[in-house]
Design goal:
The chain has 13 helices and 7 strands. It is of the alpha+beta class. It has 2 domains: 80 residues, no CATH class; 185 residues, YojJ-like (1 (3-Layer(aba) Sandwich), CATH 3.40.1700.
């Protein structure tokens, strides 16, 4: 108890600093969770803590001097290593929220679901990115501009195996097919399955850099997958695909606070998908659907 009494209580300014630092650490963990940066940060922190403990316990003067001198170098290395995560965090904070056109987005969901399930049945490979609040102009410029009305027939025609634009990805925004044949950035994560194809790697890579929702149809198995915010989930049937698309795209017609938008996360792990489906069923039952 004497030790506890000897610890001075922080002043109001000190409490404010503690709260701010805690929030910064919390949101930093949210942004890097599930990315390759998480494993790198864990390993780097373990190495640094071990070295500092060794220098303190055994009084290693030379090692302590070296650690003090490389602090600036570590800051630059941090920016280089975690550049994708930092860029995604800044994009999340700087994106502009707009009111949702619920009817238009509901129609878009149905059109995408119909096209995807038809292609999955015929094992036609597809890669469809649905733009949300973070623009993808740079990626659009890698493909062919279409700016055509969205329809299941158009999507199926684009991804037909002998079509000129079937190899790239399609960008959909505001119920229109903006561009086709686009090159999506491939994920650089090392924990992905070796059997994962180029379409799935491209979908995961784009989801790490933007808030787009990407739907993938496997050409080999016809399996439907979704990539969103750095997570990839596979094995969607028509009902589950519609629920997830509706959950993400059919936003409520009201302005959200900045904090609510930052905290909004869709977990596409198996547990997260099951939770989303349960919530959708409860909402449908509450509304009598």
């Amino acid at each position: 108890m004497d030790y506890l009494n000897a610890i001075p209580l922080p002043e109001p300014s000190g409490l404010l600093e503690i709260v701010v630092l805690a929030m910064m650490i919390y949101y930093a963990i949210l942004f890097i969770r599930g990315t390759r940066g998480a494993a790198i940060l864990t390993g780097l922190a373990a190495v640094l803590v071990t070295l500092f403990l060794l220098t303190s316990v055994f009084d290693l003067a030379a090692l302590r001097w070296l650690l003090q001198r490389i602090s600036v170098t570590l800051a630059v290395a941090f920016l280089v290593i975690f550049q994708p995560e930092i860029r995604r965090a800044l994009a999340e904070l700087g994106k502009q929220h707009v009111f949702a056109n619920t009817d238009s987005e509901r129609t878009m969901v149905e059109q995408v679901v119909q096209a995807v399930m038809n292609m999955a049945e015929r094992k036609i490979g597809a890669l469809i990115a649905i733009e949300r609040e973070i623009g993808m102009r740079a990626i659009q410029e890698t493909g062919t501009t279409l700016d055509a009305a969205l329809s299941p027939e158009l999507l199926q025609a684009i991804f037909y195996p002998k079509a000129p634009l079937h190899d790239g990805g399609v960008i959909v925004a505001q119920s229109r097919v903006i561009a086709a044949g686009c090159l999506f950035p491939l994920t650089q994560r090392e924990d992905v399955e070796p059997s994962m194809g180029m379409r799935h790697r491209a979908a995961l890579g784009l989801s790490e850099e933007t808030d787009a929702l990407i739907v993938v149809v496997s050409e080999e198995t016809g399996t439907v997958s979704i990539a969103y915010k750095g997570h990839l989930s596979t094995g969607f049937d028509e009902d589950r695909l519609r629920r997830i698309l509706s959950k993400v795209l059919l936003r409520v017609r009201r302005a959200k606070s900045r904090l609510a938008r930052v905290k909004e996360q869709l977990d596409l792990t198996p547990e997260g998908v099951a939770k989303t489906e349960q919530m959708s069923k409860e909402q449908s039952a509450a509304h009598g659907h």
